[in-house]
TrEMBL record:
<dbReference type="GO" id="GO:0043822">
    <property type="term" value="F:ribonuclease M5 activity"/>
</dbReference>
<dbReference type="InterPro" id="IPR025156">
    <property type="entry name" value="RNase_M5_C"/>
</dbReference>
<feature type="domain" description="Toprim">
    <location>
        <begin position="6"/>
        <end position="90"/>
    </location>
</feature>
<dbReference type="GO" id="GO:0006364">
    <property type="term" value="P:rRNA processing"/>
</dbReference>
<dbReference type="InterPro" id="IPR006171">
    <property type="entry name" value="TOPRIM_dom"/>
</dbReference>
<protein>
    <submittedName>
        <fullName>DUF4093 domain-containing protein</fullName>
    </submittedName>
</protein>
<dbReference type="Pfam" id="PF01751">
    <property type="entry name" value="Toprim"/>
</dbReference>
<dbReference type="Pfam" id="PF13331">
    <property type="entry name" value="DUF4093"/>
</dbReference>
Length: 191
């Protein structure tokens, strides 16, 4: 039996939606890719869903996915949105002749266990599973102490993203949010 997800999951397109519905019992809404930028009705609908049930943004780990994710992140109240990330995995989806511009698998190309883990890691409310631990208390100052922000931090930050299976396009703020979801302070100190 598939786990039921309380929040509404937002993906880019129908193939992403189909892949997710094979893994979880959830309401999954497509943005229609970049068309969400000009679709006021879709944005109003997403805002209503976020207010009622909360949203989980699950976009592809490429540049286009992060443009859509950041647009929605800015348009919907922060406390109503959870960020789910799939790792950077090179390859192409079976239905496509050629890989995408960045050569990475999108949501539709991920194995079911990867999608389920992405949902768990973001703090999705999965029926029948224990609720996730509350977010950590890490700050930008903690990241600076570890050399993850500030001068010459990009390479170090990229290594942490790889080690944690997070997409390379994650900003420093996005990494901080992910670290607070994924690690305890003790685990962070061991980085």
């Amino acid at each position: 039996m598939k786990p039921r997800v309380k929040e509404v999951i937002v993906v880019e397109g129908r193939y992403d939606r189909n892949a997710l519905l094979q893994v979880v019992d959830a309401t999954v809404v497509e943005t229609g890719g970049f068309s969400v930028f000009n679709d006021r009705e879709k944005l109003a609908f997403l805002r209503r869903l976020a207010e009622k049930r909360g949203l989980i943004l699950l976009t592809d780990p490429d540049g286009a996915g992060f443009v859509i994710r950041n647009y929605l992140k800015g348009a919907i109240p922060r406390q109503q949105v959870k960020q789910a990330y799939v790792p950077d995995i090179a390859g192409k989806e079976r239905r496509k002749r050629h890989p995408g511009k960045e050569g990475k698998l999108g949501v539709e190309g991920m194995r079911p266990e990867v999608l389920l883990e992405a949902l768990r890691r973001c703090g999705a409310t999965l029926e029948g599973e224990d609720a996730p631990a509350p977010g950590g208390d890490l700050t930008k100052a903690d990241m600076m102490d570890k050399g993850l922000v500030g001068p010459k931090s990009a390479a170090r930050r990229q290594q942490v993203l790889r080690d944690l299976g997070l997409p390379e396009h994650l900003t420093a703020n996005g990494l901080l949010e992910a670290l607070n979801l994924l690690l305890t302070r003790e685990e962070f100190e061991k980085l």
